[in-house]
Every structure is written in structure tokens, then in C-alpha cells.
């Protein structure tokens, strides 16, 4: 086994052949540890089929600006891959990733780490940044793509470990990868606004889909592109739910006319430029015009980073889909029509320029909910969660300290009317001040910890 058995995996396996394309790191950051572990398992199963034993994951800091969240998610991905006999290698691109790596290394010991933004080889080079990783207690190989990098005893041991851990999977079914991509994407969609409970939409109403992205979805970044084995657009997925009319939005007058004739409009807005912090001007103008004609308008965003929303007050609902992978269209339809409740949480403050539109940890759940009885004992916090809405799904709950910093996130799966106690592990030496969630109507629901007031 050699470098031919190592590949990048930011959205999925970067291969010359087709492979499953999963949500981007920023999108995955909106999910939870269970989902991240599922992704690690799923990508590893595909790697085994290709006789790949080592996959280089995204930079740990790309998952979230909150070290606790980023570290927990990456640790879960590593565990998932290792359970299938594959080494998933977290990437460190700068000193800003070190706090998240510290969290990760307390949860799991990866086979290796990688540094830098570019492609890496199964080789090492002496570098001051590697010393910083050693300070964290990591003693394994730190892979690099530098020309000066060379094989070492550690990298040779890594290759032997990958070869010895290889376990053929006779039950592998490529079509299952698309199903898993849909399940994972559902967990990543963040409902930012939902006036008057417009979402979930009623399938018996007249609905128009507007925007080319409904038919030709933006699913991934260009850094490590994956040629998707399958692709499901929202327009294709909705056919199994209800009949919708469609226009690509290039003719604003036609889009406005169709919106007026509908009971609700869904605009699919995309920004393919990963460096841009605003939608194209024509897209913003389209959203303004449609919202004026049809107040019951949902805006679905496809973008790599936060974008300005000058129309936020006028849109009834906003669903942040990020770059959701090959089954993102189906996942969006699942959430829009109540197949599952929204449960994504922002992994970082939604900041454009100097203005923060939404804080880290924000995201509306799929229905009315309640929190009660927050307590902390021996490094753990427990709160009771009740779902009062009509749509089953996960209820995202954030645990914060007195300064408002995120300490932990939990997403218990509940059915309507169900009550469940939820316990999370807190970072060492921290005290929880409040647990919070956001109901479908935007109401912030909290439970305080009496002993920490």
C-alpha cells in the first residue's frame, strides 16, 4: 500500500471515477456527532470498495468556528471511518485549528494528521507547526504535500496499519451511498426564518418553484470536486410529493406572475462564487419582486459562506442549504414538505461584513417545543425536551456558559407529544448557564441551571 491508496475527501472521495458527493464541511457543521459518524462510515465503505485505506478529511476548523463543535464532529467522523477499517486524517491549516484539535484528541486518536491546504502525500517534513501538534499530545505522523517531505518510520507504520486494517465489504451497494447522502443532508439544513409556520408547505396548495438551482443544484465547492454518481434536484424530488409549476427566474415578470397565481413560492437562490458574501444582484432583485407579489415565499440558499439578505424582512421563510451534496435536492424537499423536521444549527455566527444576522447555534426546529429542568453534575448537563409540534424530527438544543459560548449541542429524535431527558458531556472545567432551542415560529425557548445563576 502506498500513496495510491490515499485520497482527499472533502465532499466525498476525490477519484477519477464517479463517487458519492456529500455535504460540504460548513454544511456538515450544522449537523451533529451522530450524523458526522454516519458520514465517516459511509465514505469509508466507499473507500474500501476502491481499496483506499487512508482518506484526508477537511480542515477541522472548516466544520465550525466553535472549537467544541468542530472537534466533536471531526472526532465522530474519524471514529466512523475507523469502524470500517479506514483511517480518516483530519487536516490542520493554521493555529486557529489547534483548539478544535485539542477537543478531537481527547475523544479519539486518529491514525495521522495532515497540515496545509493543498494535497498531501504519505510523507513528513520537519516543521514548527508539527511541534505544536506534538504539544497537544499527538505522536503519530503529520502528513504534508511539501516537496521536502519524505517517508519516515511513522509513515511506513501508517501504511502497514492501513494495509492490515483492510476488510472487504461484500455487502457494499453503491446505490446505498445516495440514500445516505440524502439522510446526511437532511440533518444539515438550517431553517433561519419561518413566519406564521409557512414551512412545512401543504402539498395540496398551488406552489411554484423559481430559480435554475431547483433544476440544476449547486452541490459542492471546486477545491476537491467529486463527480457525483447520482444527482437529485429539488424539482425532480418534489414530483413524488406534489405537483409544482416551475420557472428558472430569468424572466422576472414571468416569475412574479406565476408567484401571484400560486399559494406559495419557493425561490432557489445560488451563489457559485465561494468568496462572495452576497447573492448576484439580479437574484436579490428577483427575491424582492417575488416577495412583494407573494408574501408566502420561501428562499432556499445554496452558497459556500454567509450572504447578505437585504430582503430578509420580506421573505416568509429562509432555508440555508449551503452546498448539500448530490442528494441535497431531495433533502430540501423532505424539509419543505414536512417529511422530516428542520434540525440544522449554524456552526458559526452568520456574519456578513460587520453585521451578524444570526448567532452560532441558531436554527429553528420543525415544531413547537419546550425545555425544562436543566441540571449539571460531574461534567455533564441534563435537560428535559418536549416536542409539541406535528412533525417528528430532531430538536436541536444548545448548551451555553454564562458568556454565551457553546459548550455542547444535542439533537434528540422526538415524535409529537414525546418528552425525553437529554444528557451531554461538557468540556472540562466549564459550567453550563442555559440550554436553548428555537421553535418553528422563531421563539427562543430556554431553561436555566439554578445552581449556576
Neighbour order of strands in the largest sheet: 6-11-10-9-7-8
Strand tally:
22
Question: What is the arithmetic mean of pLDDT?
Answer: 89
- Uncertain regions spanning at least 5 consecutive residues: none
Q: Approximately how much beta-strand content do the residues carry?
A: 15-25%
Portion of residues within helices: 25-40%
Q: Which class of secondary structure composition applies to the elements?
A: alpha/beta
Number of helices: 11
- For this structure, what is the CATH class of the largest domain? Alpha Beta
Give the CATH H-level superfamily of the largest domain: Glycoside hydrolase family 3 C-terminal domain
Large-scale geometry: globular
Give the termini distance in whole angstroms: 56 Å
Rg calculated over all Cα atoms? 22 Å
- Largest sheet descriptor: 6 strands, mixed
- Tally the structural domains: 3
**How is the CATH topology of the largest domain named?**
Rossmann fold
Give the second-level CATH assignment, the architecture of the largest domain.
3-Layer(aba) Sandwich
Task: Report what the structure shows.
The chain is of the alpha/beta class and 453 residues long. The protein has 3 domains: 163 residues, TIM Barrel, CATH 3.20.20; 171 residues, Rossmann fold, CATH 3.40.50; 84 residues, Immunoglobulin-like. It is built from 11 helices and 22 strands. Strands 6-11-10-9-7-8 form a 6-stranded mixed sheet, with helices on one face. α2 runs antiparallel to α7, α7 crosses α11 and α9 packs parallel to α10. The termini are far apart.
